[in-house]
Specification:
The strands form 4 sheets. A 6-stranded mixed β-sheet has the order 6-7-8-3-9-10, sandwiched between helices. The protein has a 4-stranded antiparallel β-sheet with strand order 2-1-4-5, covered by helices on one side. Strands 11-13-12 form a 3-stranded antiparallel β-sheet. It folds into 2 domains: about 250 residues, P-loop containing nucleotide triphosphate hydrolases (Rossmann fold, 3-Layer(aba) Sandwich); about 150 residues, Arc Repressor Mutant, subunit A, CATH 1.10.10. The termini are far apart. The protein is α/β, with parallel strands linked by helices.
């Protein structure tokens, strides 16, 4: 199905903004001035880091939440609630465990008041289309993860939507299952067998976006904005080893790792910005040490191109970026032009014994992570050298959502424990100096 055959606009977004109230007052802006269109016959990808507002935008388009500002139109009509003609596939399978495959799929037709005979026929056709013929009477517990997601696709397709919204539909699957499902979906699309006109895909997987999409809208996170529109002018079926495919993947990696992510303060502050309210990823110290060791050894010897590194390490783009940016924050590595390079400090860390590694990590943590230094200072100043978790969580929640505050604080606690800078008692929800003096 070529994007040049039909040019009718299915979806139009103009100046969409979404903000959520902060606990301390004011707003936390997640999306800012987002513009986009989707034409018939297109698969368009929304590509960006976790937390860039992609899924929020998708939910606005699905009519599940309202935009704070701007306009979203489906087939020329304002979206002011769930619209007939739009179906959505979620990351989680969201099946009713007490219903069979057939019943789960047919459920999508009940709200449309389709006659029972017609609904039964369409449900069977959708099940056959996604390759689950023979499993109509099976319950979700009897199915693998990939089969359950196929039921999710059948449930979306059975209503014959004009627009299919997909929110990271393959991310909960293992690599081989995800690849099989992507391939089958693309085959159905290319053959014109799916009863839909357009697909909008949210992903943070660069190769997935290049493999599936006609256009890719690249999102920043400061706040969520479309910072680039990238056409994918590669004939289907696409070969991952095609030099043009690899070049496009590399160029997107380079764009996503550019240091100039200097947009206004937002819901996901850049590592290079600010103080104790800097949002930190959930990255374990084992992952940090593991990536340093991998980079220091053969075949990289301290420097690697990110796309083949992600493939070699069997890591998602988002996970690799999170660990790489943590190394950059701690001054163990630098990321530039789609490459990651260990600094002199990072190379030394790779070759030291565990005791020296802890000392090096502690020094970097207190020097470059303001929240860690702040916690250490508060504990130093208190006579008992103790402070409750809630004391720091509430401080962070003045600047970010409760979820991100917990993520950030949990990361610092994990790093502080490894470095033996401070300790944490989970039962009492209490931080304390590891070795008070």
């Amino acid at each position: 199905m070529a994007s040049t055959i039909e040019t009718k606009t299915v979806l139009q977004v103009e100046g969409v903004r979404k903000a959520f109230p902060r606990p301390s007052g004011g707003e936390m802006t997640v999306l800012e001035n987002v513009d986009m269109t989707l034409k018939e016959g297109e698969i368009v990808g929304l590509l960006g880091r976790s937390g860039s507002g992609k899924s929020t935008l998708l939910r606005i388009m699905a009519g599940l939440i309202e935009a704070t500002g701007g306009k979203a139109r489906f087939l020329g009509e304002p979206i002011d609630g769930p619209a007939e003609g739009i179906a959505m596939v979620f990351q989680t399978f969201a099946l009713f465990p007490w219903l069979t495959v057939l019943q789960n799929v047919q459920l999508g037709l009940d709200a449309l008041q389709i006659a029972s005979d017609e609904a039964h026929k369409r449900a069977l056709e959708a099940i056959d289309l996604v390759g689950l013929d023979g499993f109509e009477s099976a319950y979700p517990k009897e199915l693998s993860g990939g089969m359950r997601q196929r039921v999710g696709f059948a449930r979306a397709l059975v209503v014959h939507p004009d627009l299919l919204l997909m929110d990271e539909p393959f991310s909960a699957l293992d690599v081989l299952t995800a690849e099989t499902l992507r391939t089958d979906l693309l085959d159905l699309w290319s053959e014109g067998r799916m009863p839909i006109k357009s697909i909008l895909l949210v992903t943070h997987n660069i190769e997935e976006a290049v493999l599936m999409c006609d256009r890719i809208l690249l999102f920043s996170s400061n706040p969520g904005r479309v910072i680039a529109e990238i056409p994918v002018d590669i004939q289907r079926p696409r070969n991952r080893l095609d030099p043009k495919f690899r070049w496009l993947v590399d160029s997107i990696y380079e764009r996503m790792t550019m240091p100039a992510r200097a947009h206004a303060a937002e819901a996901r502050p850049a590592f290079s910005a600010g103080g104790i309210d800097m949002l930190l990823p959930r990255v374990s110290t084992n992952s940090i040490a593991g990536l340093i060791e991998a980079l220091a050894g053969a075949p990289y010897h301290g420097r690697a191109d990110l796309p083949p590194l992600a493939e070699h390490m069997h890591m998602s783009t988002d996970a690799l970026f999170s660990i790489g940016e943590t190394l950059q924050l701690l001054r163990f590595a630098e990321i530039e032009g789609g490459d990651i390079r260990l600094t002199e400090t990072g190379m030394r860390f790779a070759n030291e014994d565990p005791h020296v590694r802890k000392q090096m990590f502690a020094e970097s943590l207190l020097s470059y992570v303001p929240l860690a230094a702040h916690i250490k200072r508060v504990l130093d100043e208190r006579p008992a050298h103790r402070a409750p978790y809630a004391r720091f969580a509430e401080e962070l929640e003045d600047a970010m959502s409760e979820e991100w505050a917990e993520q950030t604080l949990r990361s610092v606690i994990n790093w502080g424990r490894f470095a033996e800078v401070f300790a944490y008692d989970e039962n009492q929800a209490m931080l304390s100096l590891d070795n008070p003096v």
